[in-house]
Amino acid sequence: MTVDQILKAKGRNVYSIFSNLTVYDALKVMGEKNIGAILVMDDNVLKGILSERDYARKIVLKDKSSKETFVHEIMESHVFTVKLSDNLEDCMELMSEKRIRHLPVLEDGNVVGVISISDVVKAIIEIQKDTINHLNSYISQ
Prior knowledge:
three-stranded mixed β-sheet; about 20% strand; CBS_dom; CBS domain-containing protein; CBSX3_CBS_dom; CBS domain; CBS_dom_sf
C-alpha cells in the first residue's frame, strides 16, 4: 500500500498556520481541528511543523507563555516528508527511526496531505486482516 492510497481513504485535508502566529493561536486551531500537529507554512512553502510534544517540552516545561511565544520559535524546522508513491513500510521505518508521528506528503514540492502514525498503523492492520481472510478462505477450500 502507498501513501496515495492512504490519502484517498482518509482525505487530503491539510491544516496549516503561519510562523508569525503565537503558539496559543496554533493550539486553538489544533484544538478546533482535533489534530496533534499542524504544519507551519508561509507563502505556501512548508517551513516547519508544530506538535503537542513541542508545546509540552518547549513551552510548558520551560515555563514560557504560549501567548507570548511565536510558532517559529519552537516549531521543528527540519521536517521529514514523503511522496505519494512511498510505501507504508518505508513510512513506518522513517517514523520509528526519527521518532516522529506526522509526515507531510509532497508532490512537485507542494504539500498535498499529511499522514500520521495512526493512519499507517490502521492501514497495516487492514492489510493484515485481508491477508488473514484470504488465508482462511484458502485453507477452508
